[in-house]
Amino acid sequence: xxxxxxxxxxxxxxxxxxxxxxxxxxxxxxxxxxxxxxxxxxxxxxxxxxxxxxxxxxxxxxxxxxxxxxxxxxxxxxxxxxxxxxxxxxxxxxxxxxxxxxxxxxxxxxxxxxxxxxxxxxxxxxxxxxxxxxxxxxxxxxxxxxxxxxxxxxxxxxxxxxxxxxxxxxxxxxxxxxxxxxxxxxxxxxxxxxxxxxxxxxxxxxxxxxxxxxxxxxxxxxxxxxxxxxxxxxxxxxxxxxxxxxxxxxxxxxxxxxxxxxxxxxxxxxxxx
Length: 273
What we know:
This protein is α+β, with helices and mostly antiparallel strands. About 15% of the residues lie in helices and about 35% in strands.
């Protein structure tokens, strides 16, 4: 199931736009109704007038079903996000990719209640050309900038680790089209198959063989960036706004294996941009 893809249009001036959706599955719901194309007039502020229904819209909506082979669910990278970090994570990643404030809020308002059903979520983003595996868009006139994001996720009871996905960033120029959507594939494959296909450890243990306390080093995170004790020691007390500490179990849930010895999160009063 590909759920709630929505399309925003931002021409530089009032423009008639013909948009054809080529979905490689079965369309279920569209709004306004899609019939071979959407024939609309879009304003620079994102307002869309659909000629067929004679109504105004803020976006174009569609969803549908598509079948993938198990190979599709084999990921080289992604993110393991605990429930309590979801909103913060999505704001950071979506705005980095290129969504604006309103688009990011729309995305989170739809997906957060679904994601929060799970203790942890594996999340992987398909960005721009990667979305063509699911659907392509033919737009006339052609946008100067296109930002497309499909989020695929799998709900987890236990934490695990995977290589962190590096996300591209798109700067908006001229006529801009934005599309976001997502798919929960938790019901598509079993937990055993998901972990086997991706060669993931089922969980990270936070208790191992007893270690020499001198060799146990917590993780230091300064202004949301992984850092070191050496950098922490350089800070003067008046530069520090707050310090949060996490146990090994909590740290592993937030930062994976890097956090199994505990975490210090430091926020300074004047973080570097």
